[in-house]
Amino acid sequence: MDIHTVKKMEKKAVESSQTDFLRLGIAFAFLSMVLWYAFSIDTGAANHGFLAVAALFGAYMALNIGANDVANNVGPAVGSKALTMGGAIIIAAIFEASGAIIAGGDVVSTIKKGIIDPAQFVNTTEFIWAMTAALLAGGLWLNIATKVGAPVSTTHSIVGGVMGGGIAAAGFSIVSWGTMGKIAASWVISPVLGAVIAAGFLYTIKKSIIYKEDRLTAMRKMVPIYVAIMAFAFATYLTLKGLKKIWPSIIDTANAILPFAIEATKKPTLTHGLTIGLIAAIITYLIVKPRVAKAAAKMDNSVKDANSLFTIPLIFAAALLSFAHGANDVANAIGPLAAVADAVQSAGISSKASIPLWVMLVGAIGISLGLALYGPKLIKTVGSEITELNQIRAYSIAMAASITVIIASQLGLPVSSTHIAIGGIFGVGFLREFLSTTTEQERIEAEEQQLEEDKKQKKTFKSEMKELKANEVKTEAESVRIAELKTLIEEEEIKINAEKKHLKRAKKAKYVKRSAIMKIVAAWIITVPAAAILSASIFYIIQGIMS
Questions:
Q1: Are the C-beta atoms of residues 303 and 215 closer than 8 Å to each other?
Q2: Is residue 447 part of a domain?
Q3: What is the pLDDT of residue 377?
Q4: Residue ranges of the chain with pLDDT lower than 70?
Q5: How far apart are CA 535 and CA 164, in angstroms?
Q6: CA–CA separation, 180 vs 117, rounded Å?
Q7: Does residue 365 sit within a domain?
Q8: In a domain, 98, yes or no
Q9: Which residues, including other chains, have CB under 8 Å from residue 318's CB and lie 6 or more apart?
Q10: Within a 10 A sphere around the Cβ of 392, how many other Cβ atoms?
Q11: Where are the alpha helices (DSSP H) in 334-416?
């Protein structure tokens, strides 16, 4: 290694260290501002100090949600090259924050998913301690998972934290084990549904476009339909999961504009979602069809061009998934902070708590900041380190993310958006493995046959050279031939070794990295118990300090 290389390595290490310190400094500044603001709120309550501590831990939790959970919304788009890393971070940050602030809801359940009974807490103080411990435990577990490159569920992290804090405060009887069973079931339900739906869409697109001889005609016909289906799914998904807070205002506005009246409801129903989805699909189809026809006129009959037509829909998908995530999951993630704020101000324990604007801002800004500072690692993991993605595969994953949530919410099935997205990635990867099995096996068999022929040729050369060498008196022609055979044998040896290595790689080649599967599934399984153990430990530490 020369001195120039050493200097380059040293420079790179210094720059990396400086970047790490800058990230840490920005995160610390955000946490400090949240702590200062929470202390400045005049509640006049005895537990006011714990509100500031809970706000600090809530901000830490939000940073880690941004670093880990948001990757599922934009990772496939980045991995397929539909979005750059910088573009994905900007879009996700804007739409996550917008979803949280605009449509995030006014109230939140203080006990996420009803996993523990708040009536069993001895007093308000222990409830505050438990929720504070849940926030820190959830944030710590997400931090650990991000460090090892494992995308895990934010909801499961906070569920584990609340469960652990509750058990530490009031014992195992406080937990609704039936509810915990449903959550455990989601570890299987979510990825399986995501994988099946994503694989189904990918296979359908391959059959209707990729496997056609005349791909251009197929693209003109089918791409507008697929984009319209995406519009239908996302409009329905967004209506059901992202517009709850502003739904009454939407109804009032529609009734003021339309010549007919729409029945007022507190929240959107499936009928509302499907109706809005159908309207969005029709409008999208009419807009997209002529544009696809115009774009196809300049394209070749290639798979690459077919993929390019899904680029813009994927950008919209990333934005809409981020908005829905901000609207639906941010409030849930900061539920314990809202619970602490409510308990401090009311000196009681409620099953529902209002979300102050400052609490929602902590969640929204924290998630956006965490994504910008630490999100690229998990975005790369989701986008490219599990399986190779292109635009069509990423489209299939996005469809799985929206449709699975719609189906599950109507059937009352517990699902995790993180597990759905990762399941979708597994689904498209394993489908590719399945579809390529026959073709790949034929290619391997042909290479094995070629290897055997080359071995025979090498053996023939060796036999001929042995016979020539056996002659005590050699002619000049025989000597020349021996030299030629020696060269040919060496060339055959090099060729055979290369073929053996290539065959070995081909037989081991997988479209889904098995190491990634093991790491991610292991992280999923231990998320709830790990967060619970961390939360219980933190609760006991707080109890010991305050006693």
A1: yes
A2: no
A3: 87
A4: 1-17, 43-47, 103-113, 328-329, 331-333, 351, 353, 412-414, 437-446, 473, 502-503, 505-510
A5: 5
A6: 13
A7: yes
A8: yes
A9: 73, 74, 77, 82, 83, 88, 91, 92, 398
A10: 22
A11: 335-346, 357-380, 391-411
State the residue range of the domain holding 89: 41-214+301-438+510-546
pLDDT the model gives residue 6:
47
* Segments of 104-220 assigned E as strands: 107-109
pTM comes to 0.78
**Angle in degrees, CA 163, 168, 173, rounded to 5:** 65
Q: Please name the residues in contact with 130: beta carbons below 8 A apart, sequence gap of 6 or more.
A: 121, 162, 165, 166, 168, 169, 535, 539
Q: Tell me the per-residue pLDDT of 450-468, one tens digit each, with 9 for 90 and over.
A: 878 888 888 888 888 888 7
Which residues is 424 bridged to in the sheet?
Answer: none
The pair of structure tokens assigned to 144 is 């650990």
Q: What Å distances lie between residue 359 and 112, 166, 213, 494, CA to CA?
A: 16, 22, 56, 67
Note whether 356 and 341 are within 8 A (CB): yes
Residue 204 falls inside a structural domain = yes
Of 429, 402, 435, 432, which Cα lies nearest the Cα of 193? 402
**Residue 132 has which token pair?**
């504070």
Distance CA 517, CA 510 (A): 12
Range list of H helices, 173-269: 177-205, 215-242, 247-257
Yes or no: say if 72 and 155 are a contact pair by the CB < 8 Å rule.
no
Whether 148 and 526 have beta carbons less than 8 Å apart is answered as no
Determine the distance from the C-alpha atom of residue 406 to the mean position of all C-alpha atoms in its chain, rounded to a whole number. 18
Count of structural domains within the chain: 1
Question: Position 36: which residue type?
Answer: W
Nearest to 391 by CA among 29, 81, 12, 39: 81
What is the number of helices (H) and of strands (E) in the chain? 18, 2
Sequence-ordered list of residues with C-beta below 8 angstroms from that of 326, at least 6 positions apart, any chain: 95, 96, 97, 98, 99, 100, 101, 103, 104, 364, 367
In 3D space, the residue among 435, 447, 465, 424 whose CA is nearest the CA of residue 501 turns out to be 447
Strand partners of residue 354: 107
C-alpha span between 258 and 297 (Å, rounded): 40
- Six-digit token string for 488: 């040919």
CA 253, chain centre distance (Å): 35
Cβ proximity of 330 and 100 under 8 Å: yes
Residue type, 312: I
Could you tell me the maximum CA-CA distance found in the chain, to the nearest angstrom?
Answer: 113
